[in-house]
Amino acid sequence: MSAHHDTTAIRIRGLRTQFGPQIIHDALDLDVRRGEVIGVVGGSGTGKSVLLRTIIGLNSPTAGSIEVLDRPVTGATRAQMLQLEQRWGVLFQDGALFSSLTVEENIEVPLKEHTAMSHAFRKEVAALKLRMVGLPMNACHKYPSQLSGGMRKRAGLARALALDPDILFLDEPTAGLDPIGAAAFDQLIKRLQQSLGLTVFMVTHDLDSLNAICDRIAVLADHRVSVIGPMDVMLASDHPWVREYFHGPRARAALG
Amino acid sequence: MAASEETWLETSSSDGRQILTPVGRWAVGGLFAVEKEIRAIAEAATGPIEIDLSQLDVLDTAGAWTIYRTARNLEASGVSVELTGASEDQIALIEVVRAAEAELEPDEPTGNSFVNMVEHVGKSAVEIARETADLLGFFGLILVTAAGVLVRPRKLRLTSLFHHMEEVGLNAIPIVGLMSFLIGIVLAFQGASQLQRFGAEVFVVNLVAISVLREIGVLMTAIIVAGRSGSAFTAQIGSMKVNEEVDAMQTLGLNPMEVLVLPRLFALIITLPLLAFFADIMGLLGGGLMAWIALDISPATFIERLRDAIGLWSFWVGILKAPFFAFMIAMIGCYEGFQVTGSATSVGQRTTRAVVEAIFLVIVVDAAFSIFFQVIGI
User: Fold this and answer.
1) What ipTM score was computed for the predicted complex, to two decimals?
2) Architecture of domain B7-99
3) CATH 3.30.750.24: which residues of chain B?
4) Distance from the Cα of residue A146 to its chain's centroid
């Protein structure tokens, strides 16, 4: 995968996000390299999820520029956004599956909307994605409300992967899963990332995930990315929040 | 990346082998172009086949699946297949797809349409019977809880009661008043054009007074309130149910019937008669105004005729029905709210049902009252 590391998948420059008088990000710069797994951490209210939503165009920033796959997100026309949206997949916190559709129909939604493939082929691709995320085939015809939280996340991941995106955005992928389920989900993401050559942008609180699958970690503090780098950089950092986060009792347990 | 955006398939043959060469971008968006072609080739093939992947620019899982499936089907029908020119990444991707292969779950069997229809009718009938029984149970539960509160009035949540009275009563005044005023106008206008033929214009007053006071005022109010507040009850309680707030309430030792249902029920029982009274006044006002404009019946004459035309009972017949309608609307609204399960869709379905059922029951009860009042002679 290291061959991909020389190009940038997401480039953020001078980002400022503001809700009324409340400043979330200010002069935030961040580069995400192609083919890496980057984990974004930060205290509550530092705008991790807001950053994710801003990159995928759900929030518009007050100032600054965002480029994804060398195309601008800020100031993009609807048509340009549509093209970009087909190149990334997003997994929201609880899967955000459409509750009126079955799991299979949920996965077929982007396929139906953006491709001209036949019904039979679409079903095959949906089944393939379902299996790739490790769901049993009998989950196909179930509705989201009939699935457990972990299965909903997997189904959401299958939908995010439906169009074979280049970038995968994950919002707290392991929140609410039991440790075994969370570890399995981490492994699933790692395996898919490697086999499909994905770039993964992940907002998380889970020290185990950070340790197990992230190539680099970006810490959001003081409205910007204050520390970025692999785990050893985090452990060596003397930023007070980073020290507390990576040297606290839970961190010692997770990192050994 | 200067990769081709096109998707196509080249075929050639050498030494009796057929060679398939996928070219360009074999990814999810463009595969429909070759889907049929590759299927047809695979079905017609008899001799050995070579699939040469060296000309591919882009291959994703859907493309890998197409190639893998073709090879698998060919081998299953006894044709030897060889993949050549594949890069390491492509082989890895095909391996991923192979590992994820599974039998497609068959669609639900559709069966005989007549049988399905009979089955559907049967299911609906059973469902209606079950829901009716449930609703009766809920009715009983309301009575029991209400009796408990009457014995110990301190259990009644006054803040909540007043909040809902404002919400369902006070805030409904403009719409109820306007509707009723307009209905009064329509009744007077239509009545006038018919009664003028007999020279009996002055009976417009009787027509407006009796229909507004006995029926229309309270019925229109109940229908508006069912649409406005019955649906709101279902949506509020339903969302709380989806959010597990109702469960949380129970674990905290709060009785959802006391906290959620009774304040809404009492608020509606108290405010619906008041709203109906207001609707009566506005209906008469509208009728009176139209009688003045269209028939030259002055307000003084109108009031005089009104006194002759109706007894006190005409008024009470309308108002007496209001608390019963209120009970129906609140009961159905809350009941459907508690029936919500799982998802947002369910909230929408239940809200629709609540409004339809509440209006239906209001009209049924109204019909029953009509017969009742007829029999006892008022």
Assistant:
1) 0.76
2) 2-Layer Sandwich (3.30)
3) 7-99
4) 25
